[in-house]
């Protein structure tokens, strides 16, 4: 997820922990405890993304693909990160040192907030199509939620409108409310959101504010958290329905093919529109020699609407894969690319740069000597995942290389989870 979401989640965590505790025995330490919990939640919920400093270890794009969401995004390495975070806070904040020395409850609360903040970072990152591998080194497979867009305004709106009224200074309250009002308006004007999504976000903001005013600020924050959880639940149900429709469409388009993977990415604040890709092996070749007998795989991308009568694919926002000009249909195929599995495996064995890239790639497209993961952009247009493997064939092999499992181990003839 984006770091605005991570920050809001961390602040919400700190505020909820503070409100769950009894009042401080020493009233003068009350503000320090609250500030400590807010800061700990904020930092812990962002700390794993410090792995961005490791991206220069490999040439682009491999540095980002291999080392971002890498070791710092695992449960094992969350523990030294918590130690580092709390150690820095202890050294740099004298008021926190005094609080933690005097108050055992505050010590436990700060430690718990730091640990849970790290876990929440991994959990939110796991919700989208990018993926994480939190159980490395026991299990180095990528896990994908395929539930929410990587920048999700629903989280911003729910948590932002719950947290802004809790700011200690009026100027901060008004600036927060203004910012979280302006962002959805701007995204709608730029074409990232439908007007229906904007209306839904406005209703969510008003509901959270009303709950906070009538039942108390803490109730507003709880309502925001429940709204976020409910949205994820809705996305899970919608994702299941989307997969069923896509599989049925693929059976009609390519009968006899075997689906290996079906990555999904919803549109922001929109459970009806979904971008998707499919990775499938072609039908088994007939026995005996002859042309066309080689085994192939095909990657396809498309866009789906779960309610074409309300929002056909033509109305899904173009900036995230919509198809303006399409008829009022539920599904539109946008691209297909078929390759030889044997050639794919030969390239993996002969080109160490491509081999390294395969430790990240989930939907590989190979065009003109460059490899691109179609999860992150349209075919033929470079994105942050694009690797010019042919041009680097003679370069030294990339190192150090983390041994994440191959998302496409199935195409490489390896068992799932192989690394």
From TrEMBL:
Molecular function GO terms recorded: hydrolase activity
Superkingdom classification of source: Bacteria
Keywords noted in UniProt: Hydrolase, Membrane, Transmembrane, Transmembrane helix
Cited InterPro entries: Transcription_regulator, YdjM-like
Presence of the UniProt keyword Transmembrane helix in the record: yes
The keyword Membrane is assigned to this record: yes
Transmembrane parts of this sequence: 74-93, 105-124, 144-164, 171-189, 219-238
Family annotation (PANTHER family): HYPOTHETICAL MEMBRANE SPANNING PROTEIN (PTHR40031), MEMBRANE-BOUND METAL-DEPENDENT HYDROLASE (PTHR40031:SF1)
UniProt name for this protein: Metal-dependent hydrolase
Taxonomic source organism: Massilia hydrophila
């Amino acid at each position: 997820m984006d770091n605005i979401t991570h920050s809001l989640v961390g602040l919400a965590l700190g505020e909820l922990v503070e409100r769950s505790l009894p009042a401080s025995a020493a009233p003068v330490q009350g503000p320090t405890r609250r500030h400590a919990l807010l800061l700990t939640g904020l930092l812990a919920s962002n700390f794993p993304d410090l792995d961005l400093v490791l991206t220069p270890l490999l040439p682009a794009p491999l540095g980002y693909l291999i080392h971002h969401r890498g070791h710092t995004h695992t449960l094992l390495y969350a523990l030294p990160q918590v130690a580092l975070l709390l150690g820095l806070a202890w050294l740099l904040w004298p008021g926190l040192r005094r609080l933690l020395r005097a108050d055992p409850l505050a010590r436990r609360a700060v430690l718990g907030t730091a640990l849970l903040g790290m876990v929440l970072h991994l959990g939110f990152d796991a919700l989208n199509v990018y993926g994480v591998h939190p159980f490395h080194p026991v299990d180095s497979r990528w896990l994908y939620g395929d539930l929410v867009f990587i920048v999700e305004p629903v989280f911003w709106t729910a948590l932002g409108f719950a947290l802004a009224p809790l700011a200690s200074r009026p100027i901060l309250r008004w600036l927060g409310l203004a910012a979280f009002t302006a962002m959805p308006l701007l995204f709608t004007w730029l074409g990232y959101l439908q007007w229906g999504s904007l209306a839904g976000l406005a209703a969510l903001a008003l509901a959270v504010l009303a709950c906070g005013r009538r039942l108390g600020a803490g109730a507003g924050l709880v309502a925001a958290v429940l709204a976020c959880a409910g949205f994820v639940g809705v996305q899970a149900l919608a994702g299941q329905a989307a997969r069923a429709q896509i599989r049925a469409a693929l059976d009609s388009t390519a009968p006899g093919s075997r689906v290996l993977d079906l990555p999904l990415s919803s549109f922001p604040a929109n459970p009806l529109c979904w971008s998707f890709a499919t990775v499938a092996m072609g039908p088994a070749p007939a026995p005996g020699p002859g042309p066309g007998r080689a085994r192939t795989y095909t990657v396809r991308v498309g866009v789906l609407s779960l309610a074409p009568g309300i929002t056909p694919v033509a109305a899904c926002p173009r900036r995230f894969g919509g198809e303006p000009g399409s008829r009022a249909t539920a599904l539109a195929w946008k691209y297909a690319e078929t390759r030889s599995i044997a050639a794919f495996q030969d390239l993996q064995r002969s080109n160490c740069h491509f081999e390294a890239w395969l430790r990240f790639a989930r939907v590989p497209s190979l065009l003109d000597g460059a490899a691109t993961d179609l999860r992150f952009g349209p075919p033929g247009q470079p994105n942050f995942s694009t690797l010019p493997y042919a041009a680097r064939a003679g370069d030294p092999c990339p190192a150090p290389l983390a041994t994440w499992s191959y998302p496409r181990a199935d195409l490489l003839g390896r068992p799932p989870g192989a690394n």
